Amino acid sequence: MPRTRVILSAVVLPLAILIVAALAATVVGYGTHPGLAQFAHGIELIVWSRRLLWPATTVSIVLCLALVGLVVSGKRRAWWLIGLGPILALFVHRFHTDPNTSLAMVENPQFVGADQAAHITAAEWVVGLTFNGKAYAYPYSALFLTPVVMQTDHDQRMMLMWSAYANRAVACTLTRELRLRDLEIVSTPAGSLLLYDSRLGQFIVGVTGRTLTGAKPVGFAQPIATAKMTWAQWRAAHPQTLVMRAAVAPRKIVPPTGPLLPTVSLPRLPPDAAPDERIVLLETEPPCAFRAGAISEAPANFWAADVPVLMFRVRGTGQVRAYDRRLEGDLVPRFVPNPSPRRPGLFVDKDSNSTWDASGRAVDGPLAREGRRLRALAADDALPWGIVRTWYPQLQLRVPEGGGWGAAH
After folding, report:
1. Structural domain boundaries of the chain?
2. What is the pTM of this model?
């Protein structure tokens, strides 16, 4: 019995040290793994793992040094050091082999003119936006490696966030409170980029452009409309556009040049639609979602979040456009296809008999003489329902009441 107690006392301390050090190293190595999002409270676990990253790192390193000290002082056998191998492997994974380490953030990247963009093909997809009066294109292949882009033009600042598996781009102007050096990419849980601002202590979700609580992040100002289309389409619409140069891809990584399939781990969702079904997200307050296949070139007149909406696809490009139908004087026109080939415009409103083009501008009739224009609404097309539903838990797929999109509600 005394010999057993001696053996136990010699084993318990180093074993306890290794177990606690390994648990802390596991938090460091795999606590922010995006696959955790499929489990209950997985996203919360990722968030807390990031908050505890450096305390867990410190605990693990101190305990490992304590074990080394016991061995060096001759109080424990050297073979206990074998237990440090798995702990070292966890640290190597976290800071070297973790796929998230290949994602980078860039400030004021290099841009070239459209006539010098030899690095991009006509069929490659880009995220396009207009910032401070200039058009910019960000190739999908470039954003796959650098999903956070911050740039400055004179006294204006903006940031673009790209969640590749969600096919989702969110851009906004910034105040001076948000700085790139304070941000880091935590993970990509449930298909969304997740950022952490270490100075302000806020997590920013790439799909929503909001914090985890749904609040507007500190430092975010006004949203910037984005568009997703092929380089040929964007260049035709914006001949003077600037194009972001792509970073050099690490070995074994082939950046995609188009939308990706949403092959990510998701939590259990209500069976209201297939997780990979594509939807259009209308960014009203609160947001609304519609099946992408239900939107055609025919004008859809409906109400969403107390806003009368006109939505349609642009003929030829398939781009989704959405507008607020309210005009001055409490006028809410209803739009139908333009039946006359002699009149310009795609649609005619049944209230004033004015015709309208795809940009929401009246081009013929009494409202055209008044220079009327509809206010554009942000509508993001071809988003996978499962990812969007995860980050907008209250979101429901809308279907047109009254039997069709053409009906006004």
Report:
1. 2-97, 105-244, 278-403
2. 0.89
